[in-house]
């Protein structure tokens, strides 16, 4: 046993050196930049041929977090026989100043498209802008209920589609076949 | 006439003799074992020879043993008997049959500096736990592939696979934080909790891979609750000539090329230190998109560049070495598997995969990982065949995952950016026979820090410290060897808070202490049969990701949410193994029943709604689980030139709370292989064989989630042809050609994480060449 103890000095020294080294560990932090890809508010704005524009938005203050988005704030009304010009706005409001993601979408118009799907009959939404290659983009649109449309609630689903990774963007597409960046549904009423 | 001298380091040696002068196809090795001091014949010693497969027999009453039908090349002989110094030697059977006279003893003759000694007790569990080892010769058959691919045909082992580039070992149905990977004596700390985080190890560095099935927490710590994959590097040569080799592999499927060059030798003289041995290695692997039978797997290429350098000294007091290694990889993640939300995922699942063109280019999503390791190890020789081993390791792991979301200007910023720093020190005292006991007593300490950066949150930063003491001892009574071990661990986990809307701030320190224990016995029934049984209790504290994960998982659109108040898992298992080994064949059957209380798993919950759409929500939860299974492996040699081998595995995981199956259990599987072997002077040790992997459908799956959908059974055929020590241009080279999935079968394995979207890889033709210099 004495031999063991005597021989153990070298490892003890090594142990001490190692412990000294161990104290220089990395500074642990939690610091995700977080904001870069968040869209926390989607706003629809409808402008009638004459009169003031109305808008409504849906918020998701935690961005991609687990808390569900808020209820729609503001009401959208589409009286029969009137055609509105519309615009969608994507924003990241979790940062200051607020980031306008719509500008990003316009910059990368060739890779994006906004699809609008309306429930019920009589209401149509038609996109009016094009990307650099002449395909629909959908940041602006016209919306309206045909004359004689029955009154009632409708929903307008706004889907921001992101083309990447091999799925080609085609002018004829009627739904998103690539990646979904935004998928949110507004309610609108035909009075 | 061939004469081989077997100098065992700690014994008085050996005469030898032998018979054959003509080259024979196969060799015989006979031997006689005696006590070095009394000269008495030693009965019941375990003698194993590892050539193609490991074969084990026991010496008879006269101390005799014999192996026939061994390959005509260098094999590794191990002799082990309780109460005596284990012996391990490489014996070259190339020149002819060998007969050995061996003496075992406990004497303390100084180590011959020429000899490289490997301690047979590196594996104290091999007697009672189910273990399997792949040695260098067998590893050469899978060179160029990932570690997971290398071990996936061992009994009880399967892999979770993300295409050709990521393969994660699964042992008896458990994986990730429940399976410890040891690389060169260090616990591999590389964010191993993620199923898509493959072990960051250069598979060319592996000289031997040992898999311990079942809880091995006493020796290895809580994350060995499911088993251990131990990757060992060859010792640094301290004598002999400078040698080296060049390995080149080509794979047709992904047009992968792999190249590894190694140089080693003794003879570098440093002032003040004397002569040191060294080894350096450089490895590169480059692959493009893998291919299923009908289409390419988009964005599944990878690029890997690794290097390592080791120096070692061997002196009267023992030996020491220093190793530095760096592993770097960049690998693509299947594009179809990258979904914006749940609707996208369902569309990707129901749409025929797009036929992407072959390319070596890696787009997004992808992973870039760097792993740097420094290790200092010293082994001090102690009297009475003891040794004190001190290992210090420092590891830095930098993992970045790039996604395909958001504006282009942010694409070059990693979505997940994690840096993990680990420092560890392990001290093991392996004592020689003392009052009938032989064993290891040790302590282990580790400190870890994690930094979380990147665009998105997945896990918080954390500090972890861990300390443990343990002892594993064995005691022989006649034909029975008893083995017992105990370990105590203390863990402290501190998570670093981060406040942002929606991201749960994980703050505070949690401590856990736990105890592991095992008891087993190994009985030599006859010279050919032995049986062992073992009970083990183990525990594992929850990891940071299980407590605080929050975010969408790449490739599955799964929204994972941790649970901060998880309690440790506690397992108690029983297992039994029956082994047979004789000249004409060998067989092993193992069965186990393991109960894990507080088993942590991802449970499908309410969908998570965001402006992006809905994501299937998954919450970490706990249940009581039971895992049972059977493993069978065997080899017979009906003719000297014919080797037939087979394995079979089945595992059943049950959630004891609801009676249903567990998630991610491997499908039942069997492998068979027939191989014809021979020897010709110019051709060397040649072989050719055919084999098949038969996998049953996996329908024993949880319901209520698409991620657990059943898969069909499949059969894959393989063939190989090659030779070790083939004469070519004046050199002895190793050359082999092999083909996997020969019939180009369309299949989806249950543990393939891309199975929801695409078929697994089709036919692959592989060329492997190794040229020594």
Describe this structure in words.
The complex is a heterodimer of chains A (about 190) and B (about 775). By secondary structure, chain A is mostly beta strands. Chain A has one domain: Sandwich (Immunoglobulin-like), CATH 2.60.40. Chain A is built from 3 helices and 11 strands, in the order ααββββββαβββββ. Chain A has helices spanning about 1-5, 10-20, 100-105, and strands at about 30, 40-45, 55-60, 75, 85-90, 100, 110-120, 125, 140-145, 150-160, 180-190. In chain A, the strands form 2 sheets. In chain A, strands 2, 3, 5, 6, 8 and 9 form a 6-stranded antiparallel sheet that branches. The longest helix of chain A is centred in the first third of the chain and has 14 residues, at about 10-20. The radius of gyration of chain A is 28 Å and the shape is globular. The model of chain A is unreliable at about 1-15 and about 20-25 (pLDDT under 50). By secondary structure, chain B is mainly β. Chain B folds into 2 domains: about 15-110, Carboxypeptidase-like, regulatory domain (Immunoglobulin-like, Sandwich), CATH 2.60.40.1120; about 230-770, Beta Barrel (Maltoporin, Chain A), CATH 2.40.170. In chain B, the strands form 6 sheets. Chain B has a 22-stranded antiparallel barrel. The chains are: A mainly beta (about 190), B mainly beta (about 775). At the A-B interface, helix 1, helix 2, strand 1, helix 3 and strand 11 of A face helix 4, strand 22, strand 23, strand 24 and strand 25 of B.
Describe this structure in a few short sentences.
The complex is a heterodimer of chains A (191) and B (773). By secondary structure, chain A is mainly beta. Chain A is built from 3 helices and 11 strands; from the N terminus they run ααββββββαβββββ.
Topology diagram in text:
The complex is a heterodimer of chains A (191) and B (773).
Chain A: H1 2-7, H2 9-22, E1 29-30, E2 41-47, E3 54-59, E4 76-77, E5 83-92, E6 99-100, H3 101-107, E7 112-118, E8 123-127, E9 140-145, E10 152-162, E11 179-190
Parallel strand pairs in A: 4-11
Antiparallel strand pairs in A: 2-3, 2-5, 5-6, 5-9, 7-10, 8-9, 10-11
Chain B: E1 16-17, E2 26-35, E3 46-50, E4 54-58, E5 64-71, E6 74-80, E7 87-92, E8 98-104, E9 130-134, H1 136-139, H2 147-151, E10 157-162, E11 166-171, E12 174-175, E13 179-183, E14 186-187, E15 208-213, H3 217-220, E16 227-232, E17 243-251, E18 256-270, E19 274-287, E20 302-315, E21 318-332, H4 342-350, E22 366-382, E23 386-402, E24 416-434, E25 437-453, E26 462-477, E27 480-495, E28 508-524, E29 529-540, H5 544-548, E30 550-553, E31 558-561, E32 569-582, E33 585-604, E34 608-610, E35 613-615, E36 617-639, E37 642-655, E38 669-680, E39 684-695, E40 714-728, E41 731-740, E42 764-772
Parallel strand pairs in B: 2-8, 13-16, 31-36
Antiparallel strand pairs in B: 1-8, 2-5, 3-4, 3-6, 6-7, 9-15, 10-11, 11-12, 13-14, 15-16, 17-18, 17-42, 18-19, 19-20, 20-21, 21-22, 22-23, 23-24, 24-25, 25-26, 26-27, 27-28, 28-29, 29-32, 30-31, 32-33, 33-36, 34-35, 36-37, 37-38, 38-39, 39-40, 40-41, 41-42
């Amino acid at each position: 046993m004495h031999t063991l103890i005597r021989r153990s000095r070298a490892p003890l020294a090594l142990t001490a050196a190692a412990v000294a080294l161990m104290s220089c560990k990395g500074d642990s932090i939690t610091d995700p930049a977080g904001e870069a890809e968040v869209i926390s508010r989607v706003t629809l704005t409808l402008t009638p041929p004459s009169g003031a524009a109305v808008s409504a938005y849906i918020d998701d203050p935690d961005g991609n977090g687990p808390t569900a988005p808020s209820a729609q704030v503001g009401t959208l009304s589409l009286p029969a026989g009137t055609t509105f010009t519309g615009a969608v706005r994507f924003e990241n409001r979790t940062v200051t100043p607020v980031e306008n993601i719509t500008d990003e979408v316009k910059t990368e118009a060739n890779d994006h498209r906004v699809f609008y799907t309306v429930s019920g009959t009589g209401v149509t939404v038609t996109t009016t802008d094009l990307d650099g290659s002449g395909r629909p983009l959908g940041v602006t649109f016209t919306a309206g209920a045909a004359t004689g449309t029955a009154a009632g609630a409708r929903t307008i689903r706004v889907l921001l589609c992101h083309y990447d990774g091999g799925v080609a963007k085609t002018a004829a597409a009627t739904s998103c076949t690539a990646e979904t960046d935004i998928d949110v549904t507004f309610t609108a009423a035909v009075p | 006439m061939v004469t081989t001298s077997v100098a065992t380091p700690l014994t008085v040696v050996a005469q030898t003799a032998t018979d054959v002068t003509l080259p024979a196809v196969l060799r015989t090795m006979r031997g006689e074992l005696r006590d070095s001091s009394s000269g008495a014949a030693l009965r019941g010693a375990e003698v194993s020879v590892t050539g193609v497969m490991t074969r084990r027999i026991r010496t008879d009453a006269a101390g005799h043993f014999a192996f026939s039908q061994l390959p005509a090349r260098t094999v590794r002989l191990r002799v082990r008997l309780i109460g005596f110094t284990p012996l391990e030697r490489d014996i070259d059977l190339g020149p002819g049959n060998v007969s050995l006279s061996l003496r075992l003893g406990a004497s303390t003759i100084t180590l011959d500096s020429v000899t490289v000694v490997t301690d047979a007790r590196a594996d104290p569990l091999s007697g009672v736990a189910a273990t399997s080892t792949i040695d260098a010769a067998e590893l050469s058959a899978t060179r160029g592939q990932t570690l997971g691919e290398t071990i996936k045909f061992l009994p009880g082992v399967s892999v979770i696979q993300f295409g050709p580039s990521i393969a994660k070992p699964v042992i008896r149905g458990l994986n990730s934080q429940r399976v410890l990977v040891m690389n060169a004596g260090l616990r591999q700390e590389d964010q191993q909790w993620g199923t898509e985080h493959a072990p960051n190890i250069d598979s060319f560095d592996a000289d031997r891979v040992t898999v311990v099935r079942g809880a091995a927490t006493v020796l290895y710590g809580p994350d060995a609750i499911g088993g251990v994959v131990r990757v060992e590097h060859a010792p640094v040569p301290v004598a002999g000539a400078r040698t080296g080799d060049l390995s080149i592999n080509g794979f047709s499927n992904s047009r992968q090329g792999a190249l590894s060059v190694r140089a080693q030798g003794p003879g570098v003289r440093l002032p003040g230190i004397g002569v040191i041995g060294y080894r350096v290695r450089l490895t590169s692997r480059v692959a493009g998109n893998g291919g299923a039978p009908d289409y390419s797997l988009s964005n599944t290429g990878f690029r890997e560049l690794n290097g390592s350098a080791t120096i070692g000294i061997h002196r009267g007091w023992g030996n020491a070495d220093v190793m530095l290694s760096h592993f770097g990889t960049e690998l693509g993640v299947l594009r179809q598997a990258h979904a914006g939300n749940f609707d996208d995922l369902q569309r990707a699942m129901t749409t025929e995969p797009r036929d992407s063109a072959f390319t070596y280019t890696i787009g997004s999503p992808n992973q870039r990982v760097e792993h740097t390791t420094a290790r200092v190890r010293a082994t001090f020789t102690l009297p009475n065949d003891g040794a004190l081993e001190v290992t210090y390791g420092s590891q830095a792991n930098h993992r970045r995952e790039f996604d395909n979301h958001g504006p282009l200007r942010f694409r070059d910023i990693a979505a997940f950016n994690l840096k993990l720093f680990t420092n560890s020190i392990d001290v093991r005292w392996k004592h020689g026979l003392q009052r009938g006991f032989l064993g290891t007593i040790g302590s282990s300490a580790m400190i870890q820090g994690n930094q979380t950066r990147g665009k998105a949150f997945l896990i918080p930063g954390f500090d972890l410290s861990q300390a443990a003491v343990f002892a594993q001892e064995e005691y022989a009574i006649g034909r029975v060897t008893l083995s017992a071990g105990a370990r105590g661990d203390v863990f402290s986990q501190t998570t670093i808070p981060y406040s942002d809307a929606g991201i749960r701030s994980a703050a505070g320190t949690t401590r856990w202490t736990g105890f592991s224990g095992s008891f087993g016995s190994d009985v030599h029934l006859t010279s050919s049969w032995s049986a062992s049984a073992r009970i083990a209790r183990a525990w594992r504290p929850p990891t940071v990701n299980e407590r605080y994960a929050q975010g969408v998982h790449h490739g599955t659109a799964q929204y994972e949410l941790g649970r901060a108040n998880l309690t440790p898992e506690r397992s108690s298992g029983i297992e039994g193994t029956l082994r047979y080994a004789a000249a004409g064949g060998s067989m092993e059957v193992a069965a186990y029943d393991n109960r894990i209380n507080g088993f942590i798993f991802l449970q499908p919950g309410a969908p998570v709604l965001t402006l992006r759409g809905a994501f299937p929500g998954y919450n970490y939860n706990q249940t009581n689980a039971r895992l049972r299974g059977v493993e069978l492996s065997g080899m017979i040699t009906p003719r000297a030139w014919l080797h037939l081998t087979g394995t079979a595995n089945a595992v059943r995981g049950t959630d004891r709370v609801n009676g249903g199956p567990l998630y991610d259990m491997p499908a039942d599987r069997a492998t068979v292989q027939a191989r014809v072997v021979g020897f010709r002077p110019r051709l060397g040790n040649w072989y050719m064989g055919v084999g098949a992997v038969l996998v049953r459908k996996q329908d024993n799956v949880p319901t209520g989630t698409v991620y657990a959908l059943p898969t069909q059974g499949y059969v894959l055929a393989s063939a190989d042809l090659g030779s070790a020590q083939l004469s070519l241009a004046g050199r002895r080279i190793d050359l082999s050609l092999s083909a996997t999935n020969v019939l180009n079968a369309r299949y989806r394995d249950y543990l393939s994480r891309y199975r929801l979207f695409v078929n697994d890889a089709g036919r692959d033709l592989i060329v492997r060449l190794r040229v020594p210099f």
